[in-house]
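STRUCTURE:
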């Protein structure tokens, strides 16, 4: 899967799964991503999307995912407590766990837990790390890729470093790093060996704290916020264009 599609999955996580599909998951059914994307695009077209962050073109993201062959395997939303939200997608023999980034307090987010956690995590560890690791540990065998944007990327990196699946890898976007003391020697080795962070040149968040993963600097699309998913420039094949 190319990085552009991964970033679209990260963008998708900023929106709550419609209750119809959440109920199907609760019954043990997998939900075609294409169906959920079409439903969310219709809500976007009507101006009825209640959640989301950073995206200038949410409808464009949903439209791009309407032909996806992936299925939604799981969805967890703990916005009332830790702020942890994640999706698991499956297809072509690989499981992809995508973690939502920070949200501000508003209509569908009752507290500013994400933003408090951004400041506290380097000192005490994120309140989302345990939930993310447990979510990843549902998939202990086979190919597992963790992803996320911003804070979601940081949490995904931690889960990759601590996951029980020895094949776990991570590819994240504009993710902040860690306090160097926050990771064990084994976790640091796993990040060095199996994680990449795509960072828009000029993005401040992707430069923060200690980074053990490989960082790939990406050209910024003109007129965009450097931290936004919309800022990443991709080539025709969906791969990031290196920054100069």
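SEQUENCE:
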């Amino acid at each position: 899967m190319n990085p552009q599609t991964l970033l679209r999955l990260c963008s998708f996580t900023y929106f709550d799964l419609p209750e119809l599909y959440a109920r199907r998951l609760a019954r043990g059914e997998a939900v075609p991503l294409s169906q959920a994307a079409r439903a969310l695009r219709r809500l976007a077209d009507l101006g009825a999307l209640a959640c989301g962050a950073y995206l200038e073109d949410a409808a464009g993201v949903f439209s791009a995912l309407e032909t996806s062959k992936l299925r939604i395997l799981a969805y967890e939303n703990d916005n009332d407590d830790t702020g942890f939200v994640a999706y698991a997608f499956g297809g072509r023999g690989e499981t992809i766990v995508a973690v939502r980034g920070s949200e501000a307090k508003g209509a569908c987010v009752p507290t500013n837990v994400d933003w408090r956690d951004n400041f506290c995590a380097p000192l005490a560890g994120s309140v989302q790390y345990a939930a993310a690791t447990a979510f990843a540990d549902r998939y202990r065998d086979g190919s597992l890729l963790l992803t996320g944007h911003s804070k979601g990327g940081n949490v995904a990196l931690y889960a990759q470093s601590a996951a029980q699946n020895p094949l776990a890898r991570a590819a994240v976007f504009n993710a902040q790093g860690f306090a160097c003391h926050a990771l064990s020697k084994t976790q640091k080795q796993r990040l060095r060996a199996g994680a990449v962070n795509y960072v828009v040149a000029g993005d401040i968040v992707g430069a923060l704290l200690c980074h053990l993963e490989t960082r790939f600097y990406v050209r910024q699309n003109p007129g965009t916020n450097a931290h936004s998913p919309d800022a990443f420039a991709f080539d025709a094949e969906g791969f990031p264009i290196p920054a100069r």
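REMARK: Strands lie at 31-32, 71-78, 84-91, 94-99, 143-148, 168-173, 195-200, 214-218.
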